[in-house]
Write a structure and sequence with these properties.
Blueprint: H1 2-47, H2 50-56, E1 57-64, E2 70-72, H3 73-81, E3 97-100, E4 103-109, E5 112-121, E6 124-134, H4 146-150, E7 154-159, E8 162-169, E9 172-177, E10 183-187, E11 192-195, E12 201-206, E13 212-219, E14 222-228
Parallel strand pairs: 1-6
Antiparallel strand pairs: 1-2, 3-4, 4-5, 5-6, 7-8, 7-14, 8-9, 9-10, 10-11, 11-12, 12-13, 13-14
Helix pairs in contact: 1-2
């Protein structure tokens, strides 16, 4: 009985190891194919080869910019072809490549955090979606008198029935929107605060008597106003 159990365990481990090696080989193979796709796309862009570019992008392709704007397949290709002298971009790192059958997800981190989704159709890889997210800049917080922080505590209305509450924990302001977790905001100055690990920045405004009236939350190119109601 013990011998049988040992044999079964050995076979299970052997199969798992063999499967792991097979998966690794597949990832390496897909990586090579996608690197070739990238270079072929760069060549097609430099040669202004519209037909080739149309084959590289899926019909349902969408590019989501870090600012929230979107380009579909046609606009993406038109934008590429509108560049007078297209300079080939260097091949990105494919270290963060994840393969799920005929779908591959590539994550790249640089000035922007980018995600590209590929799908294999009829034996050919195509780009289905590209999404960029702005990375927060390097910022250094300053120390403020706790009494200044107390001025910003309260309830703010961003839109009818949509409230954000600002509280204080120790010497840190905490912001919580409806159905959202609390997040810390750190001071850049007496009136400007930033969201740690995020691009968002709050600027508080006061009236002539020094009472806080509202804030403006800036995220990329968006501005959201919160009026203090309590």
């Amino acid at each position: 009985m013990r011998i049988l159990i040992f044999i079964l365990a050995f076979l299970t481990v052997s199969f798992a190891y063999s499967q792991q090696k097979t998966d690794q080989k597949k990832v390496v193979k897909v990586k090579e194919e996608l690197e070739k796709l990238w270079n072929d796309m760069q060549d097609a862009a430099a040669k202004k080869d519209r037909k080739a570019l149309e084959n590289f992008y899926a019909d349902e392709f969408v590019l989501i910019h870090s600012t929230g704007g979107e380009d579909n397949k046609e606009r993406r290709i038109n934008n590429i072809l509108s560049i007078d002298k297209y300079s080939k971009a260097p091949t990105p790192s494919f270290d963060e490549l994840y393969v799920y059958g005929d779908v591959a997800v590539l994550r790249v981190k640089g000035l922007l955090r980018g995600t590209t989704i590929y799908a294999k159709k009829n034996g050919q890889w195509q780009v289905v979606q590209i999404q960029s997210t702005a990375m927060p800049p390097e910022r250094k917080s300053v120390s403020l008198d706790p009494k200044i922080l107390d001025l910003y505590i309260g309830k703010y209305e961003q839109s009818p029935g949509n409230y954000t509450t600002i509280t204080k924990q120790s010497d840190t302001l905490m912001v919580q929107g409806m159905n959202r977790p609390k997040i810390a905001i750190l001071p850049l100055s007496e009136t400007q605060f930033y969201v740690k690990g995020n691009v968002g920045e709050f600027t508080f405004y006061k009236d002539e008597k020094g009472h806080v009236t509202h804030y403006i939350l800036r995220v990329n190119e968006r501005e959201i106003k919160g009026t203090k109601v309590e």
